[in-house]
Amino acid sequence: MKHHATDAHTLAAAYALGALDATERKDFEAHFQTCEACRQEAAEFQATTARLAAAVAQPPPPPAKAQVMASIDGVRQLPPRIPAHVVPVLSGILRRRAVPLALAASVAAAALGGIAVWQTQNADDLEQQARQAQQQLDAVSAVLAAPDARTVHGKAANGALTTVVSSDQQNEAVFTAANLPAPGAGKTYQLWLDHDGTMRPAGLIHGDGTVILSGNPADASAVGLTLEPAGGSPQPTTDPLLLMTLPA
User: Fold this and answer.
1) What is the pLDDT of residue 151?
2) Contact indicator for 189, 212 with CB cutoff of 8 Å
3) Domain end marker among 117, 144, 171
4) Residue 178 to residues 97, 153, 160, 210: CA-CA distances in angstroms?
5) pLDDT tens readout for residues 20-33
6) pLDDT band for position 112 (cuts 50, 70, 90)
7) Are residues 76 and 175 in the same domain?
């Protein structure tokens, strides 16, 4: 990926994703030694991609390896389908839209890694799980890849690390939680959108993960998180663990 010196400020996300070649990486590292904004931006991108990946990834069950090794001889390996135009197009996109691409790539890698548990399931379960994972990936990626995507980070009262990426163009927002403690028996975590002081339900999150917020985030001022009875509540019944202001 070739760039001019004036493009250095746009390469923070590509650097965090490891998408720069050796020369570009060296040049960018030399640049951010004297640029506090780029140094901070690169650190934030690295933290965000790590959170998103950890939230979506799933560890394989213990029997997975034995079953894979037992069936590997009967599976025909197909070559990867890589369009010829991907490589030249990527360099231009990274410069124009480095931030959303870095986030989308981390979610894609983590989601596809989670699908690897298919070896322990039958074909029907695999197909259904793959469809659901792809649908989630498509929905999340559409928000992350939006030209107007904005990111804000927060920390809940219970120690959970959170990230919200919103897009007015997509009229959607993505919520990610990491280190979210178990809610306890009969409880669940519920998300809220603050509309002029009125908290409206925005979906449930049962543990670490990434979800699309339900409702309309366009005119919401903040995202809230509370601990509610299983199934959720029409209004918050506990003090918020998190009330994170959305970027304007």
Assistant:
1) 86
2) no
3) 144
4) 26, 11, 6, 9
5) 778 888 888 888 78
6) very low
7) no
